[in-house]
């Protein structure tokens, strides 16, 4: 069945609640573990049905935020997702209180019960209205970002459509495009600050009502982090500061020299080669067709999977007016179908994002056999290993997409992967500051962000642009608004993905086997255990960052950058 044939019907929440409560009561009244396992099937079916509808509404709303019907459906979901969360929490309470817990755990594994305990801990009817408001504020941020209509080059562009101009070989074009994007963001500074201020105070209030001292603690539990804490993350951040920041400073100096500039400004950062940044050799349809060769080359499983995604219209790739910014992959349980949403803009990022989201989608599809939703995909930092590693595992086939630009792409992708990590860590440390100091003013938050930029991105020069000099850059990072404390997951996963890159260079078949096995485990284990099972070093282990960055440095030392000056 093609995505266009998927049917949406607004769920009857009152009826769902009644059926859910009946199913949970049957679970509670069961006289054996076997009876409880049977009762769980009804609960799972109800969960799959509602979540499929909610995700389908989100997909169609984000594809066209101006569609009145799905705008109303998204508002309905914002209102009712917390109600649904309460139903699931009631099931989780029954699960962790089961007199047959030991027998159930032997069937399902301990991770299900750890996650259930956290779900119980992080929800209460007392915060229901607050959760609804949190969803509404997050959606309000999306609306502001999607409202961008920027006059540039004789066209009306959104932020994604402006991106190719930011990468232009013409410095004045890069500068003008960057300033145009920031003019839009700056004009909405008060809106961004106001939305975020409300979110911070609201989330802090939710945490207090649930018995937490800060939202940070609640956020870690919301994220299902059963096996590490803020102290572990700090150890990782310190490794990044000590080992990766100096390397990134050196890489930026190389870039400045490579593109022949006396001064290196923020609008130069996305321009890497005087002969032009690497670009895929065709449009979105061409990229999809060529990617069929990429994934059939990688493995039989990925070849068949990508053909399925393309044939069943399970990807919406091109940027267009009214489409929400960003990219994501989600899963529709009732159709056992992943769905990929991105905003292609003609840059090399189109390929990177497609590979990234296919990594997510492949894992979701591979894990579709798990009977409980908790195991269909793991906690988010482990999810990002699948996506980021897919970017590296497909390296041998990038000539199918980039042709003569292949070496440029491989160099810029690898160095870009490393350069991203300090930024991702800065986003995380910023959020720790925000929620440890919930009464900080918007200007104090911006000041802190600028301080962190100087620590983790010491090369960055905003050319006197007031909005950015005063710490406004973080406004464009949607995760800060919508998914607090998620962003560190990308950096943890990046270190793991770089380990897959290293291992693929040593033994590509073994690297693929380990990756595929990791995907098959879904969310049945916590992050650090999945890392261990995949034969990777935990990012929280001292020496992990140095071990992989050392390999990157060796690679960079072998690259003759003069080749990139040739057309």
UniProtKB/TrEMBL annotation:
Coiled-coil zones: none
Domain Peptidase M3A/M3B catalytic intervals: 167-544
Keyword Secreted set for record: no
Pfam families, per database record: Peptidase_M3
InterPro entries hit by this protein: Pept_M3A_M3B (IPR045090), Pept_M3A_M3B_dom (IPR001567), Pept_M3B_oligopep-rel (IPR011976)
CDD domains assigned to the protein according to its UniProt record, in alphabetical order: M3B_PepF (cd09606)
PANTHER family hit by this protein: OLIGOENDOPEPTIDASE F, PROTEASE M3 THIMET OLIGOPEPTIDASE-RELATED
Similarity field: Belongs to the peptidase M3 family.
Name of the protein in its database record: M3 family oligoendopeptidase
Upper classification of the organism: Bacteria, Bacillati, Bacillota, Bacilli, Bacillales
């Amino acid at each position: 069945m093609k995505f266009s044939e998927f049917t949406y019907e607004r769920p009857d929440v009152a009826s769902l609640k009644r059926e859910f409560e009946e199913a949970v009561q049957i679970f509670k009244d069961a006289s054996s573990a076997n009876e409880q396992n049977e009762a769980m099937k009804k609960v799972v079916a109800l969960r799959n049905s509602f979540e499929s509808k909610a995700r389908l509404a989100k997909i169609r709303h984000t594809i066209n935020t101006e569609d009145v019907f799905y705008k109303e459906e998204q508002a309905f979901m914002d209102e009712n997702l917390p109600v649904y969360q309460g139903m699931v929490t009631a099931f989780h309470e029954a699960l962790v209180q089961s007199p047959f817990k030991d027998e159930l755990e032997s069937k399902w594994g301990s991770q299900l019960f750890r996650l259930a305990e956290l779900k119980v801990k992080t929800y209460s009817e007392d915060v229901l209205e607050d959760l609804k408001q949190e969803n509404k504020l997050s959606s309000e941020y999306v609306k502001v970002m999607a409202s961008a209509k920027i006059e540039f080059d004789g066209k009306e562009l959104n932020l994604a459509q402006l991106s190719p101009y930011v990468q232009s070989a013409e410095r004045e074009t890069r500068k003008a495009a960057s300033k145009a994007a920031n003019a839009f963001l700056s004009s909405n500074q008060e809106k961004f600050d106001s939305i975020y201020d409300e979110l911070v105070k609201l989330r802090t209030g939710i945490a207090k009502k649930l018995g937490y001292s800060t939202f940070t603690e609640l956020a870690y539990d919301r994220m299902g982090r059963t096996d590490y804490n803020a102290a572990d993350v700090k150890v990782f951040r310190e490794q990044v500061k000590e080992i990766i920041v100096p390397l990134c400073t050196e890489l930026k100096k190389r870039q400045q020299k490579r593109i022949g500039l006396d001064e290196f400004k923020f609008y130069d950062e996305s321009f890497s080669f005087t002969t032009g940044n690497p670009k895929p050799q065709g449009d979105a349809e061409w990229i999809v067709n060529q990617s069929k060769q990429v994934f059939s080359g990688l493995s039989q499983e990925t070849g068949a999977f990508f053909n399925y995604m393309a044939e069943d219209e399970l990807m919406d790739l091109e940027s267009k007016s009214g489409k929400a910014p960003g990219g994501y992959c989600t899963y529709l349980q009732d159709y056992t179908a992943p769905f990929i949403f991105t905003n292609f803009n003609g840059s090399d990022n189109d390929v990177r994002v497609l590979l990234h989201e296919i990594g997510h989608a492949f894992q979701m599809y591979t894990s579709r056999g798990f009977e409980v939703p908790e195991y269909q995909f793991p906690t988010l930092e482990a999810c990002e290993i699948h996506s980021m590693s897919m970017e590296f595992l497909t390296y041998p086939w990038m000539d199918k997409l980039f042709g003569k630009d292949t070496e440029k792409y491989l160099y810029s992708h690898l160095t870009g992967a490393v350069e991203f990590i300090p930024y991702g860590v800065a986003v995380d440390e910023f959020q720790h500051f925000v929620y440890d100091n919930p009464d900080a003013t918007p200007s104090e938050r911006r000041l802190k962000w600028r301080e962190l930029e100087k620590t983790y991105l010491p090369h960055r020069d905003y050319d006197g642009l007031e909005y950015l000099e005063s710490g406004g850059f973080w406004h464009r990072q949607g995760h800060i608004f919508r998914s607090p404390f998620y962003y560190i997951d990308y950096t943890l996963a990046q270190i793991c993905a770089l380990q897959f890159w290293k291992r693929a260079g040593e033994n590509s078949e073994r690297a693929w086997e380990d990756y595929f096995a990791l995907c098959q485990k879904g969310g049945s284990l916590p992050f650090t255990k999945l890392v261990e099972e995949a034969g990777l070093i935990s990012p929280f282990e001292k020496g992990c960052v140095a071990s992989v960055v050392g390999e990157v440095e060796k690679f960079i030392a072998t690259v003759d950058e003069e080749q990139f000056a040739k057309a």
